[in-house]
Amino acid sequence: AQSVSQHNHHVILSEAASLELGCNYSYGGTVNLFWYVQYPGQHLQLLLKYFSGDPLVKGIKGFEAEFIKSKFSFNLRKPSVQWSDTAEYFCAVIFYNQGGKLIFGQGTELSVKP
Amino acid sequence: GAVVSQHPSRVICKSGTSVKIECRSLDFQATTMFWYRQFPKQSLMLMATSNEGSKATYEQGVEKDKFLINHASLTLSTLTVTSAHPEDSSFYICSARAHSGTYEQYFGPGTRLTVT
Questions:
Q1: Residue A101 with chain B: CB contacts under 8 Å
Q2: Per-residue pLDDT tens digits for A21-47
Q3: Considering only CB atoms, which residues of chain A are within 8 Å of chain B?
Q4: CA-to-CA separations, B82 to B37, B52, B85, B113, B115, in angstroms, rounded
Q5: What is the spatial distance between Cα A112 and Cα B103, in angstroms, rounded to a whole number?
Q6: Is A111 helix (H, G, I), strand (E, B) or coil?
Q7: For residue B86, what pLDDT is reported?
Q8: Which of A22, B11, B23, B54 has its CA 20 to 30 A from that of B71?
Q9: Distances (CA, A) of B103 to A59, A79, B30
Q10: Distance from CA of B2 to the nearest CA of A (A)
Q11: CA–CA dist B70, A69 (Å, integer)
């Protein structure tokens, strides 16, 4: 079965630090890639998505992600985090060879110290 | 566009009772809807996939008789947790896929179920 792996379980940063969260997926042919954010006590929100085209994708709130097909990776980045970015971040992948099933990574908890 | 709602947002029920959760696509028709479960501090786990007018497909390890899914129309799917027990307490999230060329899913806000 296809899988999605997020390398960091918990990341702690100070405000203004740069952020990079790793996401890798198992090989599966055509994929669509997503990053979601879940603020404490709130529901899932879409940060950004990649379907095709420019592998550098810009999302909301200053986030971006780069799809590197050769590495099966879709890492999330932000140049300067804020305290309000404290949340759980999920990478998710649609594998076309699994009928479009969306598979989530384990999630990364980001804590930003003010 | 692409708004998905869930009702109720929170529900508390007694052990042994059944609870129904509704998932609606408000501004699009959803041929396929998905039900996920999320435990605290954990990721979303797909429970089942439902297609309008047909039986749901359950993921391995999910009890079909306990989690009844109905997708009676292109805008509504329901999840009924039957004979609920405290271990069923969780955050249940639905998503819907529009009848379009992509597989993108749109997520509802979730329903927090507490079984006492």
A1: 46, 49
A2: 999 999 768 899 999 999 988 889 999
A3: 32, 36, 43-44, 46, 49, 51, 90, 94, 96, 100-107, 109
A4: 15, 21, 9, 12, 11
A5: 33
A6: strand
A7: 96
A8: B11
A9: 19, 30, 11
A10: 12
A11: 38
Q: How far is it, in rounded angstroms, from Cα A55 to Cα B62?
A: 36
**3-state DSSP assignment of residue B97:** strand
The encoded tokens of residue B72 equal: 């009676």
Q: CA-CA distances (angstroms) from residue B80 to A5, A8, A74, A104, B115?
A: 31, 35, 36, 24, 13
A-B contacts at Cβ under 8 angstroms: 41
> Residue A39's CB: how many other CB atoms inside 10 A?
13
- pLDDT-derived band at B38, boundaries 50, 70, 90: very high
Beta-carbon separation of B46 and A96 below 8 A: no
pLDDT at B100: 67
Cβ partners under 8 Å of residue B17, min gap 6? B83, B84
- List the single best residue of A9, A33, A44, A91 to mutate versus B (max B Cβ within 10 A): A44
